[in-house]
Each structure stands twice: as C-alpha cells, then as structure tokens.
C-alpha cells in the first residue's frame, strides 16, 4: 500500500476516534485497527501482525504524542535512573535499548576486553538522544519503566545485533559507533564499566 494512502487512512483512523485508547504502546491500538479495517474492508492493514503493527506506527507518527521513559537496571547501586522523552512507542523503545546494549557489549568485549558488561544507563540515554531523536527529561513519577537487563532476555547476542535489529541501525552507522565508543570508554561518569559490576567484581574472592 502506498505511503500516501496509508497516511490518509491513519488520519481518518484518528479523526474518527479509533486512537482514543492509545497508551504509548502499539498493542493498545491493535483492537481498534481490527475494527477499523473490518469496517472498511482493508485487508492490507489487518492481515498479519506485522501489517497491523506497521499501521499502528503510522497512526502513532500522526498522533505526535511523546512519552517519558525511566531507564534503569535492577542491579544499580542506588537510584541511577535516567529519564528520556520520546515519540517511540514502548515496544520500539525497548527494541532500540536492546540494540544499543548489544552494540555496547560488542564494543566492550571486542575492543576494550571487558566481558559480561553492558553500557550503563547514562550511556544508553546519551545514545538515544544523539541518534534516535529522543530528549532528556526531568524526573517523572509515572514514567514508563524500561529495565535494561530484562530487555535483553531472548534478544540474541551482540554478533547478530545488526541483523536482528536492522530497522534500528542508524543511517550514519559510523557516527553511531563513534558516539558509542566515546560513552562506553570515557571516564567522565559514563565509564566503560558499569560501576555496580566493577564493585561486584572487586568484592569477589
């Protein structure tokens, strides 16, 4: 289906109130997409989860509603949360964070010789802001939470990061990798090892 036609359907979908249940996730739009597509006999946006999810993304783009995400890790020492504002729906934000973490592991393991480590919360936030059109946000008590360790469950390995998350590879991949190297290797608070991991390793007999 042509992009212009899809955009027109998305605008109509919104104007007729079908997007009223949108809560920041793609899944919240799926029931309404099924109803809308059945009413208009639009099998192009209803056959298969991929078609429905792509149409949901089109709708979300037109809604222009941003959300605040709290990025943290269960193994943080104290509250090291960072807050990010983004137009990405929750499912896509999780995928982007997975991709950043896997690429960070690649840099840490292959280039810096640090095993079993991931970029810390601040490094992930810096990459989101620099390369994924996100913005820093003030603390928001009802922010949608993204726990980095859990996002990596079943996400594959850093060797397959680009193929598995191909749609999230930035257009300027070289610039992205330079930024990633900068933040995982610097000593200005965005250090190459998460301090909680470093402390844990130091405590081991």
Description:
The protein is of the alpha+beta class and 205 residues long. The chain has nine helices and four strands; from the N terminus they run H-H-H-E-E-H-H-E-E-H-H-H-H. It has a four-stranded mixed sheet with strand order 3-2-1-4. Helix 4 crosses helix 8 (173-185) and helix 5 packs antiparallel against helix 8. The protein is elongated and about 55 Å long.
SSE order and pairing:
Blueprint: H1 3-15, H2 30-40, H3 49-63, E1 67-72, E2 82-86, H4 90-111, H5 121-131, E3 135-136, E4 144-147, H6 148-151, H7 161-164, H8 173-185, H9 195-203
Parallel strand pairs: 1-4
Antiparallel strand pairs: 1-2, 2-3
Helix pairs in contact: 1-3, 4-8, 5-8
Shape: elongated
Task: Please tally the helical runs, counting DSSP H or I stretches of 4 or more residues.
Answer: 9
Helix content percent band:
40-55%
N-to-C span: 61 Å
Question: Could you give the order of strands across the largest sheet?
Answer: 3-2-1-4
Alpha-carbon Rg, integer? 19 Å
Oligomer: single chain
- Unreliable parts: 187-205
Instruction: Give the SSE string.
Output: HHHEEHHEEHHHH
């Amino acid at each position: 289906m042509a992009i212009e036609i899809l955009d027109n359907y998305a605008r109509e979908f919104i104007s007729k109130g079908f997007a009223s249940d949108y809560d920041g996730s793609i899944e919240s739009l799926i029931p309404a997409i099924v109803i809308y597509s059945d009413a208009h006999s639009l099998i192009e946006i209803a056959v298969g989860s991929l078609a429905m999810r792509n149409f949901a993304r089109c709708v979300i783009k037109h809604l222009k509603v941003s959300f605040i995400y709290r990025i943290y890790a269960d193994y943080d020492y104290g509250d090291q949360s960072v807050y990010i504002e983004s137009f990405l729906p929750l499912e896509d934000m999780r995928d982007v964070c997975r991709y950043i973490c896997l690429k960070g592991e690649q840099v840490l393991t292959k280039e810096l010789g640090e095993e079993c480590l991931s970029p810390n919360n601040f490094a992930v936030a810096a990459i989101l802001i620099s390369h994924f059109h996100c913005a820093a946000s003030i603390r928001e008590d009802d922010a949608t939470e993204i726990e980095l360790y859990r996002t990596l469950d079943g996400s594959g390995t850093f060797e397959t990061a680009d193929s598995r998350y191909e749609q999230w590879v930035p257009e300027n991949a070289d610039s992205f990798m330079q930024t990633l190297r900068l933040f995982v290797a610097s000593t200005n608070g965005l250090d190459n090892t998460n301090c909680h991991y470093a402390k844990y390793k130091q405590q081991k007999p």
